[in-house]
């Protein structure tokens, strides 16, 4: 009986697809797909229903299922799109098979439902598993990318590097900051490192502790750490918490910290215009003007 129903569904796939597309389009205005262009929605739906029928014909089609799951993730569509689509397919297929049959008693209806379920349920599991696996892989790659960007060490000139920090600092990120800081100081042969916390929204005891540890580690390998971006509210918080930041220099802005870094490395910022004026005056004095 199952093969008979499957044959009916496959031979009349055009009619079932038409019914399925109609119901899917009726859901568009009221759910997560409302903002999607009609062209993209149409093409994706046709690809989806082709995946369904290919799976039914071949009793599973791992490659097409995997490819479609990856596409949905790349489009940013939720898993509910797949679930809704398969539920609608189940409903319209059952309705179509029943509409083509003269015998419509409870036993026949039960056998139709059971047969359609045997096609759809494995596909649901397969699509959900592929979607979940692809999503976990995507999230893992994004996590790695974010980690690489979460604690960058930027060499701005010889012997001076800057580490700009943005966002919340937790224990895992603090460990990454420490590793990048020490590796970067050695790699770039830095004498001075500026840790910029302008973009850190909250500095509590734990955050301050991690920063102090990082600065102390930098000091132990022969470099100086300057903490910059100390806003008034952060300064007040640090004082109220009784945190001692006296072991290394602190500045309110990156500009001030950079000037200090230049002084530590025996350099300074020179006003070129003033220097030119002084040279002109010196030349004039030598000429006796």
From TrEMBL:
One of its GO terms (molecular function) is oxygen binding. SUPFAM superfamilies: SpoIIaa-like (SSF52091). Residues 150-261 form the STAS domain. InterPro entries: Bact_StressResp_Reg, Globin/Proto, RsbRA_N, STAS_dom, STAS_dom_sf. The keyword Phosphoprotein applies. The keyword Signal does not apply. This is Stressosome protein RsbRA. It comes from Virgibacillus massiliensis. The lineage of its organism: Bacteria, Bacillati, Bacillota, Bacilli, Bacillales.
């Amino acid at each position: 009986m199952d093969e008979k129903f499957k044959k009916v569904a496959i031979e009349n796939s055009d009619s079932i697809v038409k019914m399925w597309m109609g119901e899917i389009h009726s859901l568009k205005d009221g759910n997560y797909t409302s903002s999607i262009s009609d062209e993209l929605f149409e093409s994706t739906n046709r690809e989806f229903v082709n995946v369904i029928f290919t799976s039914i014909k071949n009793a599973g089609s791992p490659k097409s299922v995997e490819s479609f799951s990856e596409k949905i993730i790349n489009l940013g569509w939720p898993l509910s799109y797949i679930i809704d689509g398969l539920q609608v397919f189940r409903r319209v297929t059952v309705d179509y098979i029943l509409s083509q049959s003269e015998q419509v008693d409870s036993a026949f209806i039960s056998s139709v439902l059971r047969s359609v379920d045997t096609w759809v349920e494995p596909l649901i599991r397969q699509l959900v598993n592929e979607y979940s696996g692809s999503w976990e892989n995507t999230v893992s790659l994004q996590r790695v990318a974010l980690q690489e960007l979460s604690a960058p060490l930027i060499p701005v000139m010889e012997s001076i590097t800057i580490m700009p920090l943005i966002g919340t600092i937790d224990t895992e990120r603090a460990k990454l900051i420490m590793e990048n800081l020490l590796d970067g100081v050695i790699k770039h042969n830095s004498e001075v490192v500026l840790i910029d916390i302008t973009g850190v929204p909250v500095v509590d005891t734990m955050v301050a502790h991690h920063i102090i540890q990082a600065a102390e580690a930098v000091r132990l390998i022969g470099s100086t750490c300057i903490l910059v971006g100390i806003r008034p509210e952060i300064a007040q918080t640090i004082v109220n918490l009784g945190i001692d930041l006296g072991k290394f220099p602190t500045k309110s802005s990156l500009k001030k910290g950079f000037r200090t870094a230049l002084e530590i490395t025996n350099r300074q910022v020179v006003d070129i215009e003033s220097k030119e004026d002084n040279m002109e005056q010196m030349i004039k004095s030598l000429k006796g003007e």
